[in-house]
Amino acid sequence: GKGGVGKSTVTVNIVCALQRLLEEEGKPGVGVMDCDIYRPSVPLMLGAAGRPEIANDMIVPMENFGVRLMSMGFLIDEDTPVVWRGPMIMKTIQQFAQNVDWGELEILVIDLPPGTGDAQLSLVQTIPLEGAVIVTTPQPAAFNVARRGARMFDKVDVPILGVVENMSYLETPDGQRQAIFGEGGGAEIAEALECKLFGQVPLDPAIREGSDRGIPIVISDPESPAAK
Ligand code: ADP
Question: Which residues lie with the beta carbon below 6 Å from any ligand 1 atom?
Answer without folding.
Answer: 1, 3-9, 41, 166-167, 201, 203-204, 207-208, 211
